[in-house]
Design a protein that fits this description.
By secondary structure, the protein is mostly helical. It contains 5 helices and no strands.
């Protein structure tokens, strides 16, 4: 976040921040997923935006599975698979 405060479009910092946020999805804190998607949407290359958003959906699906929320996990996994296509 310090790097992004100085250089808001720093691609490596955006990727790392987004991935760090998705690492915390198991905590189910409100807004983490949306923040990660928002960070990934700032990536310059479309292929990177879509891929990293797919990673976010996949990690959300795994978090839902750990909480035995099968329906939510399936929906999230479908979004991930669509991104990976």
């Amino acid at each position: 976040r310090d790097i992004l405060a100085e250089e808001p479009n720093h691609q490596t910092a955006l990727r790392i921040l987004g991935l760090a946020l998705t690492d915390r999805l198991a905590d189910f804190k409100v807004g983490l997923f949306e923040e990660a998607i928002g960070v990934f949407s700032k990536l310059d290359l479309e292929v990177e935006r879509i891929y990293h958003q797919g990673v976010a959906w996949e990690r959300l699906a795994k978090a839902h599975l750990r909480r035995n929320e099968a329906h939510s996990a399936l929906t999230s996994l479908e979004h991930a698979l669509a991104a990976y296509e």
